Known about the structure:
It comes from marine metagenome. With 199 residues, this protein is α+β, with helices and mostly antiparallel strands.
Amino acid sequence: MVSKHFELNLKRFLAAASDEFAAGTSPATRRTAQMLRSSGITIADTPRTPIHGNDAACSPPDEINMLLGREPQSACLTAAASVYRELDWYESTKSHTPYAEIIGPSSLIRSLELRFGLFLLYSDIVYPDHQHAADEVYIVLAGTGEWSLNREPYQDKTTGAIIDIPSLTVHAMRTAQEPTLMLFSWTGVDISFETYQFC
Ligand SMILES: [Fe+2]
């Protein structure tokens, strides 16, 4: 059971996240914005599970607290701050990075068409080249990260940046001294992890 207070804050967070995705121009950003707007807060009544069965549960990352209060602080970051401690955080066995999937096939809010949540890259991390069938979008909420798409040189991305990663694009991420907090979405014809591979 979740509290009414959490449910209200979660609703505000999803609305603020929808506005962030609506600022994008790609089919994936528009699709995500629309799905976030239409997703009611129906908390799943069956157990929530991590994206991969062996991802270990972890505490909400301290780095998020460190990133809060940084300027510019968007409405979405403020809304994220009000819910992140109550979300289910796991550390990915694939990338050794913490995530909280809020909407997804086995998450708090069930969907077979959308994965959405918060994702954190610790400082001094390299998340190497990989690809998957889903269209992925990252939106930087706080901190600075670098992205490489199609094995091209890394580009700096900071608060408000939208990183559009169409289906099967080879992509990598890395951080320097600063961690990066992001929204993520997976949409498209296949949001399973069956095609996920490092390359
Ligand atoms: Fe990815």
